[in-house]
Amino acid sequence: MPDLVEVALVFSRLGLLTFGGGLTVLAEMERVVVREHHWVSDTAFWQSFALGQITPGPGIFMIIPLGARIGGPVVALVATIAFLLPPTVIGLTAVTLWHRVRELAWPRAIARALAPVALGLIAAGFVSIARVALTDVVSVVGLAVAVVLLQRLNAVTVVALAGIVGVLATIVR
User: Can you give the pTM of this predicted structure?
Assistant: First the structure.
């Protein structure tokens, strides 16, 4: 089991990168947890990500199964608290002070400056996911079909259709 202080420091730093949502930190989390610290394999990381996506609530709750894979329930708890605490404190502080500064120019300037940062972090997360998910022609075609369907159908219907196709593909194999 890794040192709990090290886990807390790593995950609190990662938590501070979640501008624009949990997926913004995905690429950096993979780099740190898999490549730098070697706490889990690439496969275990992406399985934790998948669990976070299919469970109710925010997808970033992937930290719970990821922490459990790193070192069990105690590491899962430390990683989750460390990840969520810094942005929560910053968010609560910002909300508390917002009424005092909302008319000033600098809060709007910060928001405009962070928008491209969040977009870049989301793009990096997409590249990380694509590297693992788009491994053959079938997966690339599946992505293209999903993008086209999302222009005509709601996301729930597209996910349900993808699930049905996945089950049928498993049965046919």
Answer: 0.73
